[in-house]
Amino acid sequence: MEHKLTIYNTLTRTKQIFKPLNEPYVGMYVCGPTVYGDGHLGHARPAITFDILYRFLTHLGYKVRYVRNITDVGHLEHDADEGEDKIAKKARLEQKEPMEVVQYYLNRYHSAMERLGVLPPSIEPHASGHIIEQIDFVKKILDAGYAYESEGSIYFDVKKYNNDHRYGKLSGRNIEDLLETTRELDGQSEKHCALDFALWKKAQPEHIMRWPSPWSDGFPGWHMECSAMGTKYLGEEFDIHGGGMDLIFPHHECEIAQSTAALGKETVHYWMHNNMITINGQKMGKSLGNFITLDEFFTGSHKLLTQAYAPMTIRFFILQAHYRSTVDFSNEALIAAEKGFARLCESYARLQKLTPSKETSMEMKNYRQLCEEAMLDDLNTPIVISHLYDATRIINTVADGKATISEADLKELKEVFDLYLIDILGMRVEENTGAANDAYKGAVDLLLEIRKQAKTNKDWATSDKIRDELARLGFKVKDTKDGFEWSL
Questions:
Q1: Is residue 430 assigned to a domain?
Q2: Which residues pair with 22 in a beta bridge?
Q3: What pLDDT, on a 0 to 100 scale, did the predictor assign at position 38?
Q4: Segment (H or E) for 290
Q5: Rounded distance, CA 295 to CA 308, Å?
Q6: Which of 58, 154, 354, 483 sits between 20 and 30 A of 466, alpha carbons compared?
Q7: 50 with 178, same domain?
Q8: Model confidence over 269-317: pLDDT tens digits?
Q9: Three-state secondary structure call for residue 200
Q10: Could you tell me if 353 and 446 lie in one domain?
C-alpha cells in the first residue's frame, strides 16, 4: 500500500512513517471511558481524535480492528490503593447493582458519542468480562519473577523490572526521581517499594465487586485490563495504542512494564496521545466549578455556558486544533467554531446547486491532494479545514454568478467535500448548528417566496417589510439569479 502516513510516536518522540505489522491489517487499541459519571468535553477529544485516525486508515485501504475498552471493574480510577471505588460508591448511595450503574452511564456515553459522529469500534470489551484473562496475565508476570504476593494482593516489582528494562521510557521519567517524589499512602506497608503498583488487589469486606483468584477474592489493578484485553484481541504485538496525554503516566507506563514482563517483549509499536482541553486556561475539575458534561454543552444548562452548542459544533471546535496541541475552551471559541462550521455548511449547500459550464474561469487548486497531504502529516485536521475554506471561495464566486466551473471540476469539488468534510472529518452538514428542522426552513422559504412574488408584482412595501423583519431577527437574505438564498 503506497502512502507516507507519518504519526507522532510518543515513545520515540518523533514523527515516524507508519508501517503496519501485518499489512493491510491494522490493530488499534484506545483507552475508553471509566464509566462512573457523565462524559465531559475531555472525554470527547480522544474519542474524536481516534475516530479520525480510524476513518483515515480505512480510507487509505487498511482493514482496521479498532478496540476501545470500557473500564467497569470495581476498582479505582487511578490507583487501587487509595480512596473508594467510585462505581461501588454510586451503587451504594443509589441502592443499585454496580452493573446497573455502569450500564446507565455507558448508555449515556454511547448516546453522546453517536451525537458527536464518533463511529463505534470493532470491539468494545468490558474489563469485568475479562477477569480470567487478567488473572492469567498476572500469573505470567509472577512466573517471570517481576511480581510478588503480599497479604492476598499482587504487586508489580518496579525496581526489579527497572534493573532489566527501563521503567519510565514512555513518560521520560527515571526511577530515582520518582522515588524521591512518591508520597506514602495508606496500605503502603504491603509493598516492597512505594512505586510498586497493584496487579491484583484483595477486596475488603465492604467491597461489592470481587472475583475469586488463586491469591484472594479481589479485583484486578487498573492497568491490568488494557494489557490483557489488548493482547487478547490484537495479539502479542500490535500497531497503535492511543489515549489522552493524562494516561501516559502512570497508566500506559505501567502497561509497557506489565506486557514486557509477561511476554518478554514490548507489545505496542506506535503510542499516540492527544493533548488536553482546558477551560479558560484551567484544567477541568469539579472542585474548580468548571466541570461541564457533554449533555450540559448540548443543552446549555451549565452556568459557564452562554448558550447550547450542537454536537457538530463541539466536533468542529476540537478538529480546528491539531490533536497534539492544547485546546482552551471558551464561549467565544465555541461561538466562532459554530459560525465557521455554518459557513462551510452554507457553501456545501450552494455547491450542490451549482450548474456546470464549458470551462472553469478561476484557478482551481488540487484540493484533494492538498487535503490528503495534510492528513498524511500526522492527521493535520486544521490544515484540511483551511483548504476546505479556501475552496468555498470558488463555490461562492460561481454561485454569485461571477465565475464559471466545468463539469469535471464541479464533480471533483463535490467529491473532495464529501470525502474530507463528511467521510474523514465526520461532520454532518445537515446539523449546521443553528438551522432547525425542515418545518422551520420551510417557513422561511415560504416567506421569501411571498417576498419574491411581491417583488414581481412591484409590491415594494411587502417585499421590504419581509426583508427588514428577517434581517432584524438575524437572517441574511441574498437575491440570486435563480431566486434567493438565506442563512442565519
A1: no
A2: 25
A3: 67
A4: none
A5: 10
A6: 354
A7: yes
A8: 999 999 998 887 887 766 677 788 899 999 999 998 999 999 999 999 9
A9: strand
A10: no
Q: In whole angstroms, give the CA distance from residue 476 to residue 196.
A: 63
Per the domain annotation, does 286 fall within a domain?
yes
> By the 8 A CB rule, do 399 and 478 touch?
no
Say which CATH number the domain at 19 has. Answer: 3.40.50.620
Domain end, chosen from 378, 395, 424, is at 424
Cα-Cα-Cα-Cα torsion 104, 107, 109, 111, nearest 10 degrees, comes to -140
| Same domain for 28 and 73 | yes
| Locus of grid cell 497479604 | 151
Which grid coordinates belong to 83? Answer: 480512596
Asked whether residue 64 falls in the same domain as residue 203, the answer is yes
The answer to whether 387 and 367 have CB atoms below 8 angstroms apart is yes
Number of independent structural domains in the chain: 3
Q: Report pLDDT digits (tens) over 235-264.
A: 999 999 999 999 999 999 999 999 999 999
Q: Tell me whether residue 13 is in a domain.
A: yes
Confidence (pLDDT) at 488: 64
Give the pLDDT score at 319: 98
CATH number for 383: 1.10.730
State how far the Cα of 138 lies from the Cα of 445, in Å rounded to an integer: 66
Dump strand ranges (E) for 128-286: 147-150, 153-156, 198-202, 218-220, 238-244, 268-274, 277-279, 282-283
All three cell numbers of 430: 445537515
Low-confidence ranges of the chain (pLDDT < 70): 1, 36-38, 74-85, 182-188, 285-287, 431-441, 481-482, 487-488
- Spatial neighbors of 143 by CB under 8 A, at least 6 apart, are none
Cβ neighbors of 418 (< 8 A, separation 6 or more) are none
Burial 326-344 (b: 16+ CB within 10 A, else e): ebebeeeebbebbebbbeb
- By three-state DSSP, how is residue 378 classified? coil
The pLDDT of residue 146: 98
Q: How far is CA 198 from CA 26, 30, 114, 221, 389, in A?
A: 31, 22, 35, 5, 51
Residue 26 sits in the same domain as residue 174: yes
Domain-terminating residue out of 400, 424, 448: 424
Give the pLDDT confidence score for residue 144 in this predicted structure. 98
Residues 298 and 204 in one domain: no
Q: Which residues have a Cβ under 8 Å from the Cβ of 229 and sit 6 or more positions away?
A: 29, 67, 69, 125, 127, 130, 133
Residue 152 structural domain: 6-274
Q: Encode pLDDT of 365-387 as tens digits.
A: 999 999 999 999 999 999 999 99
In a domain, 415, yes or no: yes
- The x, y and z cell numbers of residue 452, run together, are 419574491
Residues 124 and 193 grouped into a single domain: yes
